């Protein structure tokens, strides 16, 4: 009978701790989801960047090949070949 108030108080404290733990857990989960989303966006952007760089390399190689072909055919001097390299 004399400990009923203390027991209720302990229950209230434990309930508050449980709520705080749930809030912390949800916060950690939301942060993890945010990190995953950011990583996926970064990955996608890097894939697009890689694709653009690959296209640039291909275009540069075509320019070099064209300049070399023109030089070999005698239609251009060697300077465009050097500049394209």
Description:
The protein is an all-alpha fold and 85 residues long. The chain has one domain (4-84). 88% of the residues lie in helices and 0% in strands. The longest helix is centred in the middle third of the chain and has 69 residues, at 4-72. The protein is rod-shaped, with a radius of gyration of 34 Å. The N and C termini lie far apart (93 Å). The model has no long low-confidence stretch (mean pLDDT 91).
Uncertain residue segments: none
Mean pLDDT: 91
Radius of gyration equals: 34 Å
Query: Oligomerization state of this entry?
Result: single chain
- Strand element count: 0
Q: What is the string of helix and strand elements?
A: HH
Biggest sheet character = none
Domains (count): 1
Task: Report helical residue fraction.
Answer: over 70%
The number of helical elements comes to: 2
Shape: rod-shaped
Strand content: under 5%
The class by helix and strand makeup works out as: mainly alpha
Q: End-to-end span in angstroms?
A: 93 Å
List the topology elements.
Elements: H1 4-72, H2 79-84
Entry keywords:
85 residues; mainly alpha; 2 helices
Short description:
The protein is built from 2 helices and no strands.
